[in-house]
Amino acid sequence: MTSTTSWGGITTCTELAVEEVGEEGPAYEDLTHVLKAAQRGKSLVRQILAFSRDKDQEKQPVQMKQLLKECSQLLKSSIPATIDVRLDLQAESGLVLADPTQIHQVIMNLCTNASHAVENQKGLIEITLDSVDLDRNVALIHPDLSPGRYSRLSVRDNGKGIPPDDMDRIFDPFFSTRKERGGTGLGLSMSHGIVKRHQGAITVASHPGRGTIFSVYLPCAHGTEPMKAGAEVPLERKGKERILLVDDDEQMIYGTEKMLCRMGYEVVAHTGSLAALKAVRTDPGGFDLVMTDHMMPYLNGMELANEIRALCPEMPIILYSGYQDGTVDITPGLLERHGILAFMRKPFNRAELAKTIRNVLVA
Ligand SMILES: Nc1ncnc2c1ncn2[C@@H]1O[C@H](COP(=O)(O)OP(=O)(O)OP(=O)(O)O)[C@@H](O)[C@H]1O
Ligand SMILES: [Mg+2]
After folding, report:
1. Residue 186 C-alpha to ligand 2 middle, in angstroms?
2. Tens digit of pLDDT for each residue in 73-94?
3. Are residues 48 and 65 in the same domain?
4. How far apart are CA 177 and CA 321, in angstroms?
5. CB of 40 closer than 6 A to ligand 1?
């Protein structure tokens, strides 16, 4: 099984089977296990793909504060409500030159580890962001770092901590104390690789029984204009329309759906393109806009757009795609031929999302 698409297909089919069988059905429990395993397979392949991609990733000025806000939203939607997630993001924490998809992955890995460490207790995860000037003593923090200004993000938990004997091994590939619960042991080793390729470093301090703090240092970008602070969405960009959201990645659905609902839109979300198409076929006048991911099993985003436009020729459609899908050469001409009005790169923030939607709806 080599691609996220294949795993996505298994996930979608199993989801459908779980739905068909229902909670009372005899195979319900077995199927939910299959579903979890498929989701793990998908995330494992995704991690490996991200890791093995071209070393010259697409670096761009990244507003760390925005990225962390998005990650914390995703995190909150995927962990038990008993875990308290707190954010302390300094306004002037700056920009880093980075591949946002990869940094997103690092943050999510650290936060997921923290959530596992506090499992079954009243946990606390604190995510902080600031910037620090490191001088000649920088090597005391980490030998990989050279003097300069760094953006520092930290993930602190009050969980079980890391035993001193494990400390030297946690960044090793396949080292995991959670193997029986699906841990691959690749999260930290990949995060370490990604951060190193960004000329940064990860440090860790832990007190068994009291908690752990991981800090990621990334060099601040020079000569790049900070993006406008405050991604607050002006009122005129909010709306009440009904949006059909299609993505095979449940986490992406959680985050995007939440953002859209907060802007006032009504959202109907589908993790399968066929189910989404069925929804349009059943109620062709029921949606004001379609937002779809590109890389999906069965029908990809462009194919789905074709099918929807055949049913509803005037339907505005927004397509989005991640950097991992870099094999797809999405050109303006290609989008136009498929009747797609706008294209967004993942990850996108709330302001970008709000603006793109309003532009498309008034077009
Ligand atoms: N915040 C933390 N608190 C306690 N232990 C941790 C923490 N973060 C990592 N570890 C330890 O480091 C090990 C390796 O972490 P890593 O993220 O590489 O793999 P994993 O979390 O076990 O598997 P996966 O990332 O695939 O889910 C973990 O199994 C755990 O023992
Ligand atoms: Mg992990």
Report:
1. 7
2. 888 877 888 899 999 998 777 7
3. no
4. 34
5. no
